[in-house]
Amino acid sequence: MNAVNAPEPLPSAEALLRAAPPHALVATARRLLAERVGAQEVTLLLADYGLTVLQPVTHLPHTDAPVPTDEGPAGSAFVTQRPVVEVLDEPSGHLVHLPITVRGDRLGVLSVRLPAQTVAPGTVLQLGDFATALGHEVSTAGRDTDLYLQARRTRRLTLAAEMQWQLLPGRGCSRREYIIGAHLEPAYAIGGDNFDWSTSADHLTLTVTDGMGQGIDASLLTSLTVSALRNARRAGIGLADQAALADQAVFSQYGGKAYASTLLLHFDLDTGVVHAVDAGSPQLFRQRGGHPERIELDAQLPLGMFEETLYEEQTFHVEPGDRLVVVSSGVHGTRSAAGDLFGERVLRQVLGATRSAEPHEAARAVVAGLIEHYGSKDLLSDAAVVCLDWNGRR
Q1: Are 307 and 251 in contact (CB under 8 A)?
Q2: Residue 90, SS3 per DSSP
Q3: pLDDT computed for residue 338 by the predictor
Q4: Among 224, 252, 265, 353, which one is most buried in terms of CB atoms within 10 A?
Q5: Cβ partners under 8 Å of residue 163, min gap 6
Q6: Burial category of 294 from C-beta neighbours within 10 Å (exposed 0-12, middle 13-18, buried 19 and up)
Q7: Per the confidence metrics, is the pTM higher than 0.85?
Q8: Phi, psi angle pair for 132, to nearest 5°
Q9: Which residues are in the PPM-type phosphatase domain (predicted)?
Q10: Phi and psi (nearest 5°) for 52?
């Protein structure tokens, strides 16, 4: 057979999604899935900022009704991170709900309606790969279009919250050695709380920052602090010096009138040794063998409180199976209407009850427990929770 006359292979779905205009990813997905698996309907649902609903991505301002994240087949796919097949009445076929996750960051769900006879394990697996490819393109398209960021909103963000969400790396990250899940409230009005991470071949750096104040003032302070920490980290210097340089940057701007409490953690992926600098109020808990305990670190001065503060590192160790939970002062320092502190006792109860849950759901459960304790979703202080499950290198 003459190789010149051989038909060219069909372009991969990933290549065709990459070639699509940023705003046209859903339309491209519909066309590809109709051609390749006979899809009759394709819907992209993105999780809102509060992780309460999944919002269909359509031409704004028109949109379909949101779907709760904690009920129904689509919500089950999002929470369990497994495909869910919903059997519809004939001749409607079946709906396949596929979680969309990019490197551990849960974005939403892709719902595909197929003829009943075409739903097979191989097809569901193929659709799962397609959903992952679509998720990567949605993440990248956010640089060039507002469509997907707008679709995540059930209402308008405050300006401070807009700034904070743009500063965050995501709400999750996973590798073989660890899984991170994080949550922030009030999601649509967050001001000064932030979490950040960076991974390399052999290390993970994780920070949780709580900038003092509220609204724009807190957001500007936290933005400066996180940017200074990133700048120092990317210069390749040690953890204590990262804190010292960020401290200088904040003090030079505010002269000690505003400061940011920060917990810095640096993990060695080979050994499980963790270097830590506790510069303020975030608290750290470890669950080992089902028993939550607080890791007591030497409390050092918040970043920017005084000029040229020197910081010292401490170390502790994590083992495979450990869970670390970091909470900001808006969690451990919140009081109920009766004046009862959420505090360590209640937090331990919530952590114990959620030990079997995935990190994302555990972080969300801590915030849900906080809201229940406070008696309202309108929290007076920002609340940040970061949950890390450590697997290590076995």
Answers
A1: yes
A2: coil
A3: 73
A4: 265
A5: 216, 219, 220, 223
A6: middle
A7: yes
A8: -65, -45
A9: 175-390
A10: -100, -30
